[in-house]
Amino acid sequence: MTVADRLRGKVIIITGSARGIGRAYAERCAAEGARLVVADVIPTQAAVDAITKAGGEAIGVACDVSRAASVEAMAGAARQAFGGIDVLVNNAAMFATIRFGKLQDLDEQEWDRVMAINVKGPWLCVKAVLPAMIEGGGGKIINIASSTVYTGVPNFLHYVTSKGAIVAMTRAMARELGRHNITVNAIAPGYTMSTGTEHNPEKVNENTIRSRALRRTQYPEDLVGTLAHLASDDANFITGQVISVDGGEGMH
Ligand SMILES: NC(=O)c1ccc[n+]([C@@H]2O[C@H](COP(=O)([O-])OP(=O)(O)OC[C@H]3O[C@@H](n4cnc5c(N)ncnc54)[C@H](O)[C@@H]3O)[C@@H](O)[C@H]2O)c1
Predict the structure, then answer these.
(1) Alpha-carbon distance 245 to 242, whole Å?
(2) Does the annotation count 25 as an active-site position?
(3) Contacts 24+ apart (CB under 8 A), 171-176
(4) Residue 2 confidence (pLDDT) above 80
(5) Which residue's alpha carbon is nearest to atom 31 within ligand 1?
(6) CA distance readout (Å), 9 to 28, 31, 44, 84, 136
(7) pLDDT, tens digit, for every residue of 120-134?
(8) Ligand 1 site, CB within 6 A
(9) Residues linked to residue 187 through DSSP beta bridges, in sequence order
(10) Å from CA of 126 to ligand 1 middle
(11) Is 249 helix (H, G, I), strand (E, B) or coil?
């Protein structure tokens, strides 16, 4: 087996993979031989078509990660299409549409929605895939955190808090699920140019670049190799870890 096909045959669900960084994860995993479930609240057809056109295998599933019934249906569709579930990537999040604001000005409903999608969503998704992973003898869960947890970005409290919960959840889940041969890790991306950030002022990116050891813009392609590694058998003995992929902005 070469690096290029280290995910051969693995069934990987990636939430929020119709666009942005999630789509880049999906395309890379498919290129390494995985069978993909592209799950999103927005239409998934374009992402699925891109994967199949490149010779990969994928299905699209409409799913709102904040709703238990929707998430269970998504796991059911994955099992029906591919027989099992090897890897879950909890990438979906409320991010691009969140409004910046001082903590005393944040909208309570928006706070609740961020928590429902970014925190409850990953838990619901793990719950839904667990029976298939246990039946299959193990699995891998990869949660997507954020460098904002370590840098404490101001005026974004609900989002930063939700991603802090992802770090805590990753550790507690790893302890709880290790007995089932299920690993749980997280990636903490730095500020990344994607569909979620392309409308932000260039100044935000310029300031971030100055805070990095590697002084350049981060792209989704900078993240996909780490994701593929954590999804592969090369990472069988890594669990409960948060890997920062941020050009050396944070070091901890
Ligand atoms: N772009 C960055 O700078 C950056 C930095 C650190 C972490 N992240 C994290 O990386 C991940 C991807 O970010 P992105 O920049 O591609 O953002 P994005 O907003 O472009 O993508 C998020 C995806 O999640 C989907 N989604 C939103 N709500 C959903 C729901 N309820 N159910 C299912 N899917 C839903 C969206 O439709 C979209 O496809 C997110 O978890 C984000 O928090 C991004």
Answers:
(1) 10
(2) no
(3) 171/240, 173/126, 173/141, 174/239, 174/240, 175/240
(4) no
(5) 64
(6) 14, 11, 21, 11, 13
(7) 999 999 999 999 999
(8) 15-16, 18-22, 40-42, 63-66, 91-96, 117, 144, 146, 189, 191-192, 194-197
(9) 144, 243
(10) 17
(11) coil
Q: Which residues contact residue 113 at a Cβ distance below 8 angstroms, ignoring those fewer than 6 apart?
A: 66, 94
Residue 48 predicted with pLDDT over 90: yes
Each residue's pLDDT tens digit, 16-40? 999 999 999 999 999 999 999 999 9
Query: Is pLDDT of 1 > 80?
Result: no
Task: Kindly give the distance from the C-alpha atom of residue 21 to the centroid of ligand 1, in angstroms, as a whole number.
Answer: 7
Task: Please report the domains of the chain, with CATH numbers, ordered by start residue.
Answer: 3-245 (3.40.50.720)
Atom of ligand 1 nearest to the CA of 67: 31
Element (H, E) at 129: helix 121-135
Helices 157-177 and 121-135, interaxial angle, to 10°? 20
CA-closest residue to ligand 1 atom 25: 16
Cβ-count burial 232-245 (b if 16+ within 10 Å, e if not): beebeeebbebbbb
Q: What are the structure tokens assigned to 216, written together? A: 């350049």
The residue whose CA has the least distance to atom 21 of ligand 1 is 20
Which protein residue's CA is at the shortest distance from atom 36 of ligand 1? 16
Q: What is the pTM of this model?
A: 0.98
Residue 92 CA, closest ligand 1 atom number: 24
Which residue among the candidates 25, 150, 159, 191 is catalytic per the annotation?
A: 159
**Would you place residue 139 in the very low, low, confident or very high pLDDT band (cuts 50, 70, 90)?**
very high
Give CA 153 to chain center in angstroms.
Answer: 20
